[in-house]
Structures are given as structure tokens and as C-alpha cells.
Design brief:
This protein is mainly α. The protein contains 16 helices and no strands. The chain has two domains: 104 residues; 80 residues. The protein is elongated, with a radius of gyration of 26 Å.
């Protein structure tokens, strides 16, 4: 996306944003109300779509003395005030913005004409906005994300569909935390646990010791996790129990 022409009104909007200071609440509120009243639609569109313009307004190195601006608080507040005023731009922003955090704010506040746009972002988006959309998209769209490369996306996929539908996938996942949740939800002596005797992550292994069929326990003896004193005690207790 090319940089839009820096009109005098766009420059004025950027300068007005730079004067916002969250340290003085009353002054901040007064200034942002004036900002809302004076902002032109075409300038807000440029601010919302173009990363270079957005950074000039909110992330300029010359404006880094304001810690509220550095952590994105002012940017979020400005967008939350202006998006409802120009809500007709919501779909265009969600589909075309170069600024992931702006797309997130638009989704968070429901600034779109058709809720099905959440399916588009979940399936074809990226970054935090895709993660956010995945929390709210249809189940049909969610199922297309089954093998997504992002562990955050997969965690939402497993959480929303649940282990009744996804247990075997959870047990096979490359992220230890997901495997741990899978083992925690798996029935005792669940057949697929027999295939996990080479589990190396401590968390999942500690649960596996309790839930794997006892005749498969000897296959865990060589696992490095058995050297851990806490796990070793659990292992010995299970062996001694005979079941």
C-alpha cells in the first residue's frame, strides 16, 4: 500500500494525536473529543490503513517520552473513539489494513457489516487479529485450522471443539502444553497413550506415568524424566500398586 499524500488535514490529525497525554485525564478527554469532531473520514482511513501514517502518529521516535503512547494505550483509545464515527469503513479496515492492532480493535468492537467477515480473518488473516477472529468464527471455519502452524491458533481450535472431538490430535501435537491437556482429559489406559512411551516433556510424562496401562510402564524406564525425583516416586508408587 502506497503512502497517501500528506494533506494539511492529515498532518493536523497526526500532530493532534501527538499532543495527547494520558497523564492528565481531564485534558486527555477534552482533546480526544475535539479530535473526534475535527477528524475527516479520508484522514481516518489513511490512519487506519497505512502503517507508515499510523507509526507517524503513534510510534514516532520523537514522541517516545509518553509511556502511555509507547505501550499502545493512546492508539487504542483514539481508534475506539473514531471507529464508531466512521463505522462504514470497518470492513475495508479489517480486509485491507496493514496494522494488525487496528484490525483487532475493529473486531473487538464489532465494527463490521457482516459477522461472517470473522471467518475470512480466521482462515486468511495473520497475527493477533487472526487469533482473535479464531475465538469467534464459525465452527466450519474453525475446522479448516486443524493443522495451523501457530500453536496459539491450534490451542483455540482444541479448546473450542473440545477433547471429545480432538483428543487424538491433542496427544499428537508438537506443543507439550497441548499434549499435557490431552493426557489430562484422556481416560485412564486410553489406547493411544501406549504410543507415547517416548514422551520427553516433563509435564505430559508425569501424567502419562499415571494413565498408561501398567504393562507399558517398563517402556518408560529408560526415559530421562524418570531421573527426576518427584516423577521417580510417582513411577515407583504406580509400579508398586500393581494397577
Amino acid at each position: 500500500m502506497g503512502t497517501p499524500r500528506m494533506t494539511s488535514s492529515l498532518k493536523s490529525l497526526i500532530n493532534d494525536i501527538k499532543t495527547l497525554d494520558a497523564g492528565n485525564w481531564q485534558e486527555f478527554d477534552n482533546k480526544i473529543q475535539v479530535l473526534v469532531e475535527n477528524t475527516k473520514k479520508k484522514d481516518f482511513e489513511s490512519l487506519s490503513l497505512n502503517r507508515e501514517i499510523y507509526d507517524l502518529a503513534f510510534n514516532d521516535n520523537n514522541n517516545n517520552s509518553n509511556r502511555w503512547n509507547r505501550n499502545g494505550w493512546i492508539a487504542e483509545r483514539v481508534m475506539e473513539y473514531l471507529l464508531p464515527v466512521f463505522s462504514e469503513l470497518g470492513d475495508k479496515i479489517i480486509k485491507n489494513s496493514e496494522i494488525d492492532e487496528v484490525i483487532c480493535i475493529a473486531i473487538k468492537n464489532g465494527t463490521y457489516k457482516d459477522i461472517s467477515i470473522l471467518d475470512e480473518v480466521a482462515k486468511n488473516g495473520s497475527g493477533s487479529s487472526q487469533i482473535m477472529a479464531t475465538n469467534f468464527c464459525s465452527v466450519n471455519a474453525l475446522r479448516t485450522l486443524k493443522d495451523h502452524k501457530s500453536s496459539k491458533i491450534r490451542k483455540i481450535y482444541y479448546h473450542r471443539l473440545g477433547p471429545v472431538e480432538c483428543l487424538d490430535e491433542m496427544l499428537d501435537d508438537k506443543i507439550a502444553g497441548i499434549r499435557y491437556e490431552g493426557i489430562a482429559r484422556a481416560p485412564y489406559f486410553y489406547d493411544k497413550l501406549k504410543q507415547m512411551t517416548k514422551e520427553i516433556a516433563r509435564g505430559p510424562f508425569s501424567l502419562l506415568v499415571e494413565k498408561i496401562p501398567i504393562d507399558y510402564l517398563p517402556m518408560l524406564v529408560a526415559n530421562r524424566n524418570v531421573k527426576n525425583s518427584w516423577i521417580s516416586r510417582r513411577f515407583e508408587k504406580r509400579i508398586s500398586s500393581g494397577h
